[in-house]
Write a structure and sequence with these properties.
Helix content: 55-70%
Strand order of the largest sheet: 1-2
Distance between the termini: 9 Å
Number of domains: 1
Radius of gyration: 13 Å
Number of strands: 2
Strand content: under 5%
Largest sheet: 2 strands, parallel
Shape: globular
Oligomer: single chain
Low-confidence stretches: none
Mean pLDDT: 83
Order of helices and strands: HEEHHHH
Number of helices: 5
Length: 107
């Protein structure tokens, strides 16, 4: 799995499997924040304990592209995610921008 594929799968997770949530990594109702969806996706792709290095090699770059896609003036995904005015569409747009960055980089 490439970072662009992990980002696409995480976006799909938020769209179809769970719901998006702010102010918490996840909820008891099965909602995920922007980064939890990605972490869960990477963990599912590489579920074995001895695959931590591979998870880091996939999750690190994928997270980097999310960070790079943040609007100007934002440095932290979780802080951006948790702003009260944040909308689900903005989260999806962030994922689209990150996927595009990853694909442009050949990842």
């Amino acid at each position: 799995m490439k970072p662009s594929e992990a980002l696409l799968a995480a976006k799909a997770r938020l769209m179809f499997d769970t719901k998006w949530v702010g102010h918490t990594p996840s909820s008891q109702d099965g909602e995920d924040c922007t980064t939890t969806a990605l972490s869960f996706t990477v963990g599912q792709a590489l579920p074995h304990r001895d695959q931590q290095t591979e998870r880091d090699k996939l999750g690190g770059p994928a997270t980097h592209y999310l960070r790079e896609a943040l609007p100007e003036g934002h440095r932290f995904i979780f802080a951006w995610n948790d702003q009260p005015e944040r909308t689900f569409q903005e989260v999806l747009d962030l994922y689209d921008a990150a996927i595009s960055l990853a694909k442009d980089a050949g990842e």
